[in-house]
Amino acid sequence: MNIEVCYSPQSYHLFHKPEAIVVVIDVLRATSAITTAIFHGVSKMIPIATMIEADEYKKNGFMVAAERNGEIVDGFDLGNSPFGYMNKKVKGKTIAITTTNGTHAIEVARKAKRIIIGSFLNLDAVVDYLKKEKKDVLFLCAGWKNKFNLEDSLFAGAVANELVNKHDFATICDSTIAAIELYKLAKHDLEGFLANSSHRKRLAKLDLERDVKYCLTPNQCPVIPVLEGKFIVKG
Amino acid sequence: MNIEVCYSPQSYHLFHKPEAIVVVIDVLRATSAITTAIFHGVSKMIPIATMIEADEYKKNGFMVAAERNGEIVDGFDLGNSPFGYMNKKVKGKTIAITTTNGTHAIEVARKAKRIIIGSFLNLDAVVDYLKKEKKDVLFLCAGWKNKFNLEDSLFAGAVANELVNKHDFATICDSTIAAIELYKLAKHDLEGFLANSSHRKRLAKLDLERDVKYCLTPNQCPVIPVLEGKFIVKG
């Protein structure tokens, strides 16, 4: 089985293979929030790309999460802080969600037959899932406004490293090799390695250090959120 | 002064700043060939993007280099092997050149006020040039058909590492941080590090190991090729 890493939603069309499992990654914070939500009992999430859709869902009585540039959009109850998805209010609910990068990444990969949600919070679960499925894997990093980012690449590297070293996966893809090498450099101190990263700085300004620490701590939510039609559900 | 690294010509528009100096990089092999040519006495090179233009220039009596997928296009005398540009036949000549990735990268950056050509062959010359110019720098990696590649990123990391550590340059760009970290990992054995890279394998199949070794040996051609209008000339 072959592994590739796509660093930006903009480049997805260069990597698209319908049969490959696409792992969408937006560590800070959309896919961490979604993983947390599904683990803590949110029933379904509906990823949507635009604020127009967000308003529409809100009008129709849905609970809606909306984040742009790291902050909750005015008039909405939830953003992409994982801590917003840990309380009783959201349990059993269906929540529509739009974020700066993560939901856009899900949107561009819609043509793929299988899309799952990855984050450090479900790292080992993702590895287990992929090794059981035995299919080609494409990691799609949400990045930041279509630019490369470090934290998403590190997660792709973390999973790829396991699959290549311990299971029957291989890669001839330079971005996968780079992601693995970067992860091996960073793995003993993810927070330290990311201290100078652009999005880490963005979030520090917004006083979101608690979120960052949480999102970088592996395996707190052993669950696989899977896209089924328009819903993300527990896989 | 600020440094950014763009991993793919496709993403150039996300990074475009007219005042920044753009360093176009296609280590294997277009910018290595151009650096070699200008160093060994080729008077001017005309980077062209398409085979249609290549045919046109040929009809008009120009010497034309044309490479696609690592090989010289049938009917043309030169490709992008640097060794083709070291002999008397090309000295003082004007040569039009089109390659799979490198000339495409030059094309997308045309709006920049200054474009220079970088490769390991002129590594120190590029560092010196940029530190004297004291302007923002954008490294534009040609990559492979708009995908990330390792060797171009490593060169960007090599120059960025020097500029950030020893001179008044800084970066808040994740792709620059990644390129620097990858270069620091690879610098003592570039060839070894690239042994599994995709393009290295492509060229090995074409029996171009001599080209690879040459292109990865720094500072053999201390010259700065600069784009002036439609020509690349000695800067």
Description:
The radius of gyration of chain A is 16 Å and the shape is globular. In chain A, helix 5 crosses helix 6 and helix 6 packs across helix 7. Chain A has 235 residues and is of the alpha/beta class. Chain A is 38% helix and 19% strand. The first copy, chain A, has one domain: ComB-like (putative 2-phosphosulfolactate phosphatase). In chain A, strand 4 and strand 5 form a beta hairpin. The model of chain A has no long low-confidence stretch (mean pLDDT 94). A four-stranded parallel beta sheet of chain A has the order 1-8-2-7, with helices on both faces. In chain A, strands 3-6-4-5 form a four-stranded mixed beta sheet, with helices on both faces. Chains A and B meet through helix 7 and helix 9 of A and helix 7 and helix 9 of B.
The most extensive interface between chains reads: A-B, 28 and 28 residues
The amount of helix of chain A comes to 25-40%
H/E series of chain A, N to C?
A: EHEHEHEEEHEHEHHHHHEE
The coarse silhouette of chain A is: globular
| Beta-strand residue fraction of chain A | 15-25%
Largest sheet of chain A: 4 strands, parallel
Uncertain runs of chain A: none
CATH class category name of chain A: Alpha Beta
Output the strand order for the largest sheet of chain A: 1-8-2-7
Number of helices of chain A: 10
Number of strands of chain A: 10
Oligomeric category: homodimer
Structural class of chain A: alpha/beta
CA(first)-CA(last) distance of chain A: 21 Å
| The CATH fourth-level homologous superfamily of chain A | ComB-like
